[in-house]
Amino acid sequence: MIRKLHDIKRLLITVAMGAIVTLGALAQADAALSHFWVGKSYYNPAVAGDENVIHMNLGSRMQWVDFKHAPMTFYITVDMPYKLLEQRWGVGAKAEFERIGLYTNTRIGAQIAWKKRFGKRTLSVGIQPGVFSQTFRGSDTQLVEDGTTNEPDPAIPTSDVSGTAFDANVGVYFSAPRYWAGFSITHITSPHIELKASREAIDYFEFNASRSYYFMGGGNIPINNTLFEIQPSGMFATDTKAWTAQVAAVLRYNRMLNIGAGYRWKDAVTAFIGVNLKNAYIGYAYDYPVSAISKATFGSHEVFVTYNVKLDNREKNKNKQKSVRLM
């Protein structure tokens, strides 16, 4: 017997949680990061290895604080450049843990990007194969009996169910000293996950992650005769049924202090502050909702940390094999 899990998110008790779907089926599988302009590889695997460093991103987003069952996302990405057969590549990995109501999502993937240099500009094409694992805590549901049948909804699991499916992201990325742009498709396989109470179970529920399309771009504009730079960026996302967009502008002083603001369409305004250290960046973003959800929460918090380890690709001895080594 096969039973479809039409929309488990309706179990999230309040109408406000339905805003996740209203903002787009994108939210079924990808977090709406305010720091998208820093953690570009979260959405686009072609970004991997774009700089001559081992680049590590660590991010945490707590959405709609003080709101029961609100989304919480934690993720990490690691990437670095690599040279094989005289060809430039980027390699990396991404791991993400997310809780939305009674859902728990885990996504893990490996990233590889082919790169072509045009002077100081680089064109990259990347792919991220991986797995999408999901759990629904049916044992925590509070079902209301139907007034007609006096029975719970058979489309809602009453026990914990979970499943895993193959997932993949692809992307194209172009970077130059003063600007960057990218296009990517996440969940290109539209993963179909069968949620079961056990591997041997005959009955199962279904979840399908939406294929989503992301367009991103940004730049770096120095202000003449000052230590200030302006870094504007934007992102548009759609699954062809719904869409969302956000923009951000950051003012950087002396390549150290960042202060900025952003806006996510019909969702929130954002304030940024961050500090560039020698090999790291520590940033914080606060989202204040502009939708009806503002009646139930004071906003969302996001913390972002990056750390870089410089690489030395110089050939020390022509008789030795080339290698990528830490300084």
In short:
By secondary structure, this protein is mostly beta strands. It is built from 1 helix and 18 strands.
**How many H/I helical runs?**
1
CATH class: Mainly Beta
CATH fold label: Porin
Helix content: under 10%
Low-confidence stretches: 1-25, 315-327
Mean pLDDT: 83
- Tell me about the biggest sheet? 14 strands, antiparallel, barrel
Instruction: Tell me the span between the first and last alpha carbons.
Output: 59 Å
Instruction: State the shape.
Output: globular
Q: What's the architecture in CATH terms?
A: Beta Barrel
N-to-C SSE string, H for helix and E for strand: HEEEEEEEEEEEEEEEEEE
Strand order of the largest sheet: 1-2-3-4-5-6-7-10-12-13-14-15-16-17
Number of strands: 18
Class by helix and strand content?
mainly beta
What value does the Rg take, in angstroms?
A: 22 Å
Question: How many independent structural domains?
Answer: 1
Strand content: over 45%
> What is the CATH superfamily classification?
monomeric porin ompg
